[in-house]
Each structure stands twice: as structure tokens, then as C-alpha cells.
């Protein structure tokens, strides 16, 4: 019998095989990082994450965290392999339901799916793991006698869930964690969807965040935490206080956090509409900072040890706009987070009739002599590991005030609202903020930015004060001690 394929030449067959294999040949691994100059391996190339679904169990008695995180993502190239940022021990990985191979180098996992992922296609990754986060090398997971916490920056996600760990790759979150049903509470971001009782004496807490968040802004606190839930402006207002926060410390903390709705309402008038679906806060011991975890900041109890502190509440909630809704495109742009959150303290002080922003600018400037190392930090380029130097906060706030003085209040607040509305749920750079400020003010502001952000050295006078008048008043306004208290732990070199 004669085959009907005998007329096809070997050359044609070879060409057909090349064409059929074209997509596989074109597929390549995604990069192991997004190229942030400070942290080049943070984040991962080749895909964008849409949602993280964490279905975990935590045992306080052993500190073991176990379960599965499911990642929904979209390939942005033909992918033969991709990376995940993760520091815990993995037992299995599936891609689109099929077993995938994986290897580890430090805090980086390389995953090779059974078949390549076409560009623009949606895919799912299931990572199963079990480990003790508090004992992993380099961990920023905290475990005290009363609470376990995933709270820190710039790195925390990798110590409790696999991710593309960089602010550029925002996603929505479902955080579901089962803990012993003995009064142990789980507090995370967004809205509590409910709790369920599971076999083995466990209670599962289900949290949902429907507005995209950066990985480091997703948190969990687990322990004996008294949780309160009301509503404010139609949003859940959820607070939590660890059981070892007691006495006047607890009273002061509650009185401070209870002002959260009032503070958010005020900040909405200067930054634009509040960008998220919930508000609140958590107060714990065992950390030396407060962090702007999305929808629900976490505060060290030490901020309230000597009285109420609405300034730190203003600072962390200002971050809901500056850092959370609009995040840093790379970590060198940290001024866009901390400079504006610190300046929000000054605006809040002005709003409630304490020291004005100008008085606070004068006091901050006068508190650092010309020979101080404070003036040697370049705010726009602090360097890796120096992003949370006190100068980023205080000289950063002076820089914000300098922009306000240069353009006038009407234009200044228009700039702030426009930045937020144009970049909601995205990222930005200092240069982009400069360009917007110049566009809306109709004038060059490069010299202002150079003086306060891009150059070392103490400027001749505080912004808004002439050289002649710079030292006319040395008196600190009444609220200055409270403002400085917000930063006292930073001055001791602790991260925030």
C-alpha cells in the first residue's frame, strides 16, 4: 500500500516541526527580580499576581504555620519557569492543577510547570508548606508570649506566604487562618468574612481585602487579642488590643485609636476620598514601631505609654493614601511614603489648633545643628537599608512644606488630591511627583526639590522663613513633644 505522505519532503517535515514547536522554543524563564536598585531580587518577572488565597493553620504552642497558598496570576510572556519569593520549607507545588518541579536558592524558589504558560494567559499556583516562621534565618516574623505577628517592612511576606514581593505587584487577598478555639484571635486586613469551627478544636478566621495591596502591607496578628467591631461611614471599623496591653496604656491606646474615623475624615479633605473598604488598628507589644498595614495599622503599645497620641494615628492613616494606595515604585522613593505621612502629623496638629505646620517646620529645622549627620542624608537617595532614617521623616516633611510654601495652599492641596486620584492602586516616583507639581503650579520647582530632597547640607533657613528670621523664635509649639514621640524609636535605629 502506498502512503499518501510519501510526497512530503524531509525538509517540509522539519519546517513543520519547527513551526509546531515555536511557542515552546519562545518560552523562557521569568526574571528572579523586578530590578529595584535597592533590592534587585524582590518581586519576580514574567507574571503579574491578581489574588493571593492563604488557607493556613497556625499552632501557637509550636509556632508552626502550615497550609496552602493559592496564587492567581497572569503571564506577561511565554513562561517556561518563574520564581517566587519565599523563605519557608515547601513540600509541593502545582501549576494549573498539575504537579510542578521546584528548586530553592535562599529565599527564592524557581518553579517549572509541566508545560509552558502562554503569554497573557491566566494561571494558578498552589504552594503547600509547613515551617516555623519565627525560627527561619533572617525572619521578621515576631513571636512573643502573647502574640505572633507578620508585621514589618520592606520585607515580611516571604516569611509567611510565597509571593512576588515588591510594591509594584499589588493584588487582592483572602487570608484564612485556623487557630485553636481557645480565645485565640486572628486579625488581618480588610473585612472579616466570618469564622467557622473546624475539627480538632480549631476556629478559622476568614479575612478579605478587595482593593489591591502591596505584599508588605498585608499582615496578620494571632493571639489573645480583644477585638472590637463597629462601623464608620459605612465601613467596618475594627480594632484589636493584645492581652498584655493593660491599665493606662490600654486606656490611652483606645482613646487614641478611637479618633481614627475623625482623623480619616479630616485627611479625606486634604488627600481626597479614603481609598479602602475598612478602617481600624491593632495595638501590640513586642515591636518598636507602627506600620501602615492596609486598612488596619499596627501600633506598638509604647506609643501610648505616657498618654494619648493622635499624631501617630494621623501618621499611619495618612499612609493609607501615601504608601498604601499609591506605593513606591522603587524603595529609593520612600519620601513619597514617610515625608507625606510625617507632614500629615503637622497638618493634623494645625487642624486641631496645636502647633501650625510652619511652627513645626521651624522647630524641626532648629532641632538639628548644621553639623548634624541628619543633614547628610539625601532624602531622594537614602541607600538600601537606610530608607527609615529619621531624616526621611523629618527632613522629608520639611521638603513637603517647602513645596506648599512655593506653590501656595490652593495649588498644593490640588497637587496632593490629583496625585492620589491619578495613581490610585498604583505606584509613583519622586520625579513623577515633581513633574505633576510643576504641571499644576505652572512653575519650575527643581530648585526646591534639590534643596530639600536631592542634596546634602543644611539649607539656610526653614521653608517659609527668610534667613534673617530663621532663628527669630526658638520656642517649641505645645504639640512638638507629641510629634517627636512618634519618631523617638526611629532615632534609636529601629525600623518602622
UniProtKB/TrEMBL annotation:
Cofactor: Zn(2+)
EC numbers, comma separated: 3.4.11.2
Catalytic activity: Release of an N-terminal amino acid, Xaa-|-Yaa- from a peptide, amide or arylamide. Xaa is preferably Ala, but may be most amino acids including Pro (slow action). When a terminal hydrophobic residue is followed by a prolyl residue, the two may be released as an intact Xaa-Pro dipeptide
Top EC class of this enzyme: hydrolase
Statement: the UniProt record of this protein carries the keyword Acetylation: no
Domain Peptidase M1 membrane alanine aminopeptidase: 309-452
Signal peptide: 1-26
All residue ranges annotated as the Aminopeptidase N-like N-terminal domain in the record: 50-217
Name of one Pfam family that matches: Peptidase_M1
Keyword annotations: Hydrolase, Metal-binding, Metalloprotease, Protease, Signal, Zinc
Family: Belongs to the peptidase M1 family.
Protein name, entry field: Aminopeptidase N
Native species: Pendulispora brunnea
Amino acid at each position: 500500500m502506498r502512503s499518501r505522505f510519501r510526497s512530503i519532503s524531509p525538509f517540509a517535515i522539519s519546517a513543520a516541526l519547527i513551526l509546531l514547536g515555536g511557542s515552546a522554543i519562545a518560552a523562557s524563564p521569568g526574571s528572579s527580580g523586578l530590578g529595584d536598585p535597592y533590592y534587585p531580587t524582590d518581586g519576580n518577572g514574567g507574571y503579574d499576581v491578581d489574588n493571593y488565597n492563604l488557607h493556613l493553620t497556625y499552632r501557637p504552642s509550636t509556632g508552626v504555620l502550615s497550609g496552602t497558598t493559592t496564587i492567581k496570576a497572569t503571564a506577561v510572556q511565554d513562561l517556561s519557569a518563574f520564581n517566587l519569593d519565599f523563605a519557608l520549607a515547601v513540600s509541593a507545588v502545582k501549576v494549573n492543577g498539575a504537579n510542578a518541579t521546584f528548586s530553592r536558592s535562599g529565599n527564592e524558589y524557581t518553579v517549572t510547570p509541566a508545560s509552558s504558560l502562554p503569554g497573557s494567559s491566566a494561571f494558578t499556583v498552589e504552594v503547600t508548606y509547613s515551617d516555623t516562621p519565627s525560627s527561619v534565618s533572617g525572619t521578621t516574623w515576631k513571636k512573643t508570649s502573647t502574640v505572633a505577628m507578620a508585621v514589618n517592612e520592606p520585607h515580611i511576606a516571604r516569611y509567611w506566604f510565597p509571593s512576588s514581593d515588591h510594591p509594584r505587584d499589588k493584588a487582592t487577598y483572602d487570608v484564612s487562618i485556623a487557630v485553636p478555639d481557645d480565645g485565640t484571635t486572628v486579625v488581618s486586613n480588610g473585612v472579616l468574612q466570618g469564622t467557622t469551627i473546624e475539627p480538632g478544636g480549631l476556629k478559622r478566621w476568614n479575612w478579605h481585602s478587595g482593593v489591591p495591596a502591596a505584599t508588605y502591607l498585608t499582615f496578620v496578628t494571632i493571639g489573645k487579642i480583644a477585638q472590637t467591631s463597629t462601623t464608620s461611614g459605612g465601613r467596618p471599623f475594627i480594632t484589636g488590643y493584645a492581652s498584655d496591653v493593660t491599665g493606662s496604656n490600654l486606656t490611652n491606646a483606645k482613646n487614641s485609636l478611637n479618633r481614627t474615623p475623625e482623623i480619616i475624615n479630616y485627611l479625606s479633605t486634604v488627600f481626597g476620598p479614603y481609598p479602602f473598604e475598612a478602617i481600624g488598628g491593632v495595638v501590640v507589644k513586642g515591636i518598636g514601631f507602627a506600620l501602615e498595614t492596609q486598612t488596619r495599622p499596627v501600633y506598638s503599645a509604647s506609643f501610648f505609654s505616657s498618654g494619648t497620641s493622635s499624631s501617630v494615628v494621623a501618621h499611619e492613616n495618612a499612609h493609607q493614601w501615601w504608601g498604601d494606595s499609591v506605593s513606591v515604585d522603587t524603595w529609593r522613593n520612600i519620601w513619597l511614603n514617610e515625608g507625606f505621612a510625617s507632614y500629615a502629623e503637622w497638618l493634623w496638629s494645625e487642624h486641631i489648633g496645636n502647633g501650625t505646620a510652619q511652627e513645626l517646620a521651624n522647630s524641626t529645622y532648629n532641632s538639628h545643628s548644621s553639623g548634624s549627620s541628619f543633614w547628610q542624608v539625601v532624602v531622594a537617595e537614602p541607600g538600601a537599608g537606610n530608607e527609615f532614617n529619621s531624616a526621611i521623616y523629618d527632613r522629608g516633611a520639611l521638603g513637603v512644606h517647602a513645596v506648599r510654601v512655593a506653590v501656595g495652599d490652593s495649588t498644593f492641596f490640588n497637587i496632593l488630591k490629583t496625585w492620589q486620584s491619578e495613581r490610585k492602586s498604583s505606584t509613583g516616583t519622586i520625579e513623577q511627583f515633581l513633574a505633576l507639581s510643576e504641571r499644576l503650579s505652572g512653575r519650575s520647582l527643581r530648585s526646591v526639590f534639590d534643596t530639600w530632597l536631592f542634596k546634602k547640607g543644611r539649607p539656610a533657613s526653614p521653608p517659609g522663613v527668610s534667613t534673617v528670621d530663621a532663628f527669630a523664635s526658638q520656642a517649641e509649639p505645645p504639640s512638638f513633644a507629641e510629634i517627636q514621640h512618634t519618631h523617638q524609636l526611629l532615632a534609636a535605629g529601629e525600623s518602622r
